[in-house]
Amino acid sequence: MAKCDEGYNCEVCGQPVEKLTESDLYLRYVIGMLDPEVLHTTPERHIRCNPVLAQFIVDEGFAPVTAEGDFAKANLDAAFVAQRQELATRGYQRLKELVQVNLPIVDYPLPEVRAKHAESRGK
Predict the structure, then answer these.
(1) Residue 9 lies in a domain
(2) What does R_g of the chain's alpha carbons equal in angstroms?
(3) Which domain of life is it from (predicted)?
(4) By CB distance 3.0 to 4.6 Å, which of 40, 45, 67, 88 could disulfide with 56?
(5) Nearest to 121 by CA among 103, 102, 106
């Protein structure tokens, strides 16, 4: 959805990513997995089309996703899974908040991510 919030097609399934709450690109930006400098050049996907990240969202409004293979959370360290679930779930909940407010894109990330961005800019 980076192109002025008009939307992009998912690089995995080819369908439009129509809502912010479906955007893997913005979820990764919000949780600090994507540098703001590359937001506009990074391909878009649906959150569900990235099961390695989607599997960590635990929210009643998000149907669970199961990843397979080495990166399935069943194969990962329990402490890492707990930390990643907390972060991905908070990020997804932030996306749900963002659709209800009018904020500049620099204010989309979670507070600790915004603080890291500000620190890296020397502020």
Answers:
(1) no
(2) 14
(3) Bacteria
(4) 88
(5) 106
Is residue 84 in a domain?
yes
Number of domains in the chain: 1
The sign one gets for the Cα dihedral 31, 11, 72, 58 is positive
The 10s digit of each residue's pLDDT in 2-50 is: 444 456 899 999 999 999 999 999 999 999 999 888 998 999 999 999 9
Its pTM surpasses 0.85:
yes
List the end-to-end C-alpha distance of the chain, in Å, as a whole number. 28
As a whole number of angstroms, the distance between CA 96 and CA 91 comes to: 9
Question: CA–CA separation, 12 vs 17, rounded Å?
Answer: 11
| 5 domain-assigned | no
What's the whole-number mean pLDDT along residues 87-95?
Answer: 98
* Tokens 């929210």, residue located: 59
Does residue 11 lie within any of the structural domains? no
CA of residue 25 relative to chain centroid, distance: 6
36: number of Cβ within 10 Å = 17
Asked if 32 contacts 116 with a C-beta cutoff of 8 angstroms, the reply is yes
